[in-house]
Structures are given as structure tokens and as C-alpha cells.
Amino acid sequence: MKTIKLYDEMPYSTDFKATVIEVNKNQIILDQTLFFPEEGGQECDLGTINDIPVKDVQIKDDVIIHYVKKHHLQVGDTIEGHIDWKRRYSFMQNHTGEHLLSGIVHSMYGYDNVSFHLNSEEGQVEYDGDIKDIDLIEEKVNQAIYENKEVHCFYPDDLESISYRSKKEIEGKVRIVEIKDYDICACCAPHVKRTGELGVFKIIKVIHTTRGTRFIFLFGERAYHRFKDDFDHLESLYHLFSSNNQTLVKQVNKMYEEKTALEVKYAQLEKEHMLSLCDHAYLFVEDCLPVNQREVTNHLVHVYGTGGVFVGNDEKGYRYVIGSANNALDILTQLKSLRSKGGGSKEMIQGFTPASKTELLKALS
């Protein structure tokens, strides 16, 4: 028996009644449900059945399975279900938005949507081609939102007469989602009634892949909260730098350049100080930059034939870099006898040792 999908006709409803037709431990099957299962790249609805939290919803052969924890439900029981509306509406906004985005990308480039995933944080969609006009795409999608186009979801009587997008072959009845002038696509998920409900759209990351281009995006309330967080952070930075939106980037770039110059100067001074301490093949210091550890090791090898730098102390142990003009792997064998870990080549080894300075110098002498 197929589950009646109440969400097809009533995507804005949050409460429903149904009859339990099968119970298998923590799996509950109802004759009808408002719970959208994990399907089409989208995570499932959450909510309750008789105040029992629904943890997961899956679909198999048109039968929708509700996963709960502790329960006393039995076949024949009449239940009251409740959908987490905040989660449902967020998914409706972002899934409808993906249709709008993909329809516009397809009209601009002819590219197909080859991957889609929508979770509670963000949406991801990948297209089979290289996309660079990100600002233009965002502008077009937001313009379509402002136009407040109708979103029409239906099961057509004559599917063959309709040209529509689909990510995969579909068996059985095909549900079509149409946004006039922008997109027509096969889809099983709940959607909003009009594009104006999408609010606002933002691509927050672009990833160029071997297959094409992947967008990470936000619509509606998710986009609003991202904008608000970013605005609050910027306001804090404006205050911190006594700046505004015209001068902040310039000031940060200047600070970055100064920081980079100081780091270079510090590295050089640290290296000079370490070299001044090199009166033995092995140098022990509390801390230093990794690049200086290697460069000073190379200096010690040049002077002594074998040498290395140990960074740390007897209490916490030492990370080491040791080089040799002969075979550093022989030294690694000695260090491992002191419970040390590491690896490398004949020229240079590195790793960590818990041994004390006294134990190390004795083993290396």
C-alpha cells in the first residue's frame, strides 16, 4: 500500500491525522502523512507523532517510514502528527530557490544540474560547466524573486507534451514544478506558492570542480540571518578600526602588509639568535618557527656533518628535525629506542620524542 503524500497538496499544513498501518520496532508506517521523507537531495521533515519525536523519515517503493524512539503505537491507532514548520518552510524556500537558480543558469549557459543537496544549514548545487558571471546570476535570481512569480506544482495528464528538466530517470507519475518564464522541472518536494516568498538570494561560495561549478547558496530566512551576522561583524570591525565601508578594506590591507613585514623580520631575528647558540651539533630551544628549525638544522649539518634542532622541553617533549651527511635513518633507530616517533629519509628525519634532553644527548653522543 502506498502512503498518501499529504505534503503534495498541503505543503503549508503543519498538523494531520492518520492511521497506523504497520509497526516494526522503531519504524512507523501511516496510511497518510505530511512528513516529507529524505528524497531528491533534500533532508527529511522533523516533528512529532502523538508528541513522540520523529528522528528520520525515509521512503521506499512509495511507502513512507517514520523513525521514532520509544513509543507504544500499535496497528490501527489513530495518531496526530505535527510538522516542525520552521524547518519545513526553510526547506521550501531553499528548494524552490534552487529551481529558480538552476532554471536561470540553464537559460544563460545551457548547463544541467548534476548534483543537489539541501540540509538544514545550506544548499549545494553543481552544474556541468564553468560559470564565472556570479554577480549577474545573483542579480537575475533576485529580480525573479521581486517579480513574485507563481510556483505551480502539478501532475500533468500529458507528460510527453511538456519539456522539463530532470536530474534522473523517473518511474511512475511525475510531479512537475513550474515557475513561469524561468523553469519547469520534475520534483517531489514541497515548494512555496510564489517566488516573493524566497525573500532574498545569495551565493556564499563558488567551487570549480572537475565536473563544472558548484554553488553553496542561501535563500530566505537563512540568507537574512547570514546577512545580519555579517553586518554585525562589520559593524564591530568599523568600530574597532574607527572606519566605515569605504575605508575598512584599505585599513585591513595595510595592517596585513605590516603584519607580513613584521613576521619576516621576526623570523630573521629568531634565526640569527638560534645560530648564535649553535656551539654543538644539537640545539635545544623552547620554541621556534618550523622554517627556522629546518634552516638551522641545515647549518648544523654543514658545520658538524650531523645536527638537529629539538623544540620543546622535558615536561612536554620535543619535536625534532635532524639531518646527516651520512644516514639520518640510523639516528632515527636510536631515537625510537627512547619511545620516539618519526620518519624521513637518509638526509633528514623529523618527529616527536618524549625523552629528556639528558637522555637524548646521551643517545646521540
From TrEMBL:
<dbReference type="Pfam" id="PF01411">
    <property type="entry name" value="tRNA-synt_2c"/>
</dbReference>
<feature type="domain" description="Alanyl-transfer RNA synthetases family profile">
    <location>
        <begin position="1"/>
        <end position="216"/>
    </location>
</feature>
<keyword id="KW-0479">Metal-binding</keyword>
<dbReference type="InterPro" id="IPR018165">
    <property type="entry name" value="Ala-tRNA-synth_IIc_core"/>
</dbReference>
<dbReference type="InterPro" id="IPR018163">
    <property type="entry name" value="Thr/Ala-tRNA-synth_IIc_edit"/>
</dbReference>
<keyword id="KW-0862">Zinc</keyword>
<dbReference type="Pfam" id="PF07973">
    <property type="entry name" value="tRNA_SAD"/>
</dbReference>
<dbReference type="InterPro" id="IPR051335">
    <property type="entry name" value="Alanyl-tRNA_Editing_Enzymes"/>
</dbReference>
<dbReference type="InterPro" id="IPR012947">
    <property type="entry name" value="tRNA_SAD"/>
</dbReference>
<dbReference type="InterPro" id="IPR009000">
    <property type="entry name" value="Transl_B-barrel_sf"/>
</dbReference>
<protein>
    <submittedName>
        <fullName>Alanyl-tRNA editing protein</fullName>
    </submittedName>
</protein>
<dbReference type="InterPro" id="IPR018164">
    <property type="entry name" value="Ala-tRNA-synth_IIc_N"/>
</dbReference>
